[in-house]
Request: fold
Amino acid sequence: MTWSIELVALVTSTFLLAGVVKGVIGMALPTVSLGVLAAVLGLKEAILLMLVPSIVTNIWQGITGGCFVLLLKRLWLLLSAMLVGIWFAAEALAMPDTSILEILLGITLIVYGGFGLTAPQLPAVNKREFWVSPMIGIATGVLAGLTGSTVLPVVPYLQTLKISRGEFIQAMGICFSVAALGIGFSLGVRDMLRLDLGVLSVIGVLPALIGMAMGKAIRDRLSEQRFKQIFFASIIVLGAYIAYRADGF
Reply:
């Protein structure tokens, strides 16, 4: 891919926006960056560009909060299964034509946006957690390996664990970090990583961090509920556009 001023501007502005969203609601940097970049550049390029900012910002989110060790002990089955799903599913990204995967990404974003807008009350898993966790991990890993998206079904599942808001945010950071590292490793072993996009991905870290700082400042002045409504509605529109574009209409 040939670098241009427009491409660098797209990457920096995308990660700035994604960082702002993450700063306000504590999540969605990979979702926003993946959705915007896939809509403009294509799925493979979007996944590669998303990796480094996602890893850096989510590792920071995952290790801060005071519950890192406890959450790892609770989520290790989920995380292990997620890595297995990513490893096998990432093989599909080697296909010359990934339009079907872009449609799947669009559908995933639409479902995620709909879930966020409706916010259904899910039952607690309680004693079923031991066998439900690996099932959710596999499903999340397969979707992540196919589309780069790591939000479904793991985010709704984490809500069923009835943990505190701080633990929930930290658990998302851990899950997203592991997923991004797993995607990067799976693509690297298959020789699908590209130096030019890797450098651009590194460049995206700084605007992502600046955006997060801006988002945290905005959070104190803005209704988080209203912001979430706008965000999830936008995710639905973005997902519909990605699916529409990939389908060739």
Notes: The chain has a mean pLDDT of 92. The radius of gyration is 17 Å. The chain has eleven helices and no strands.
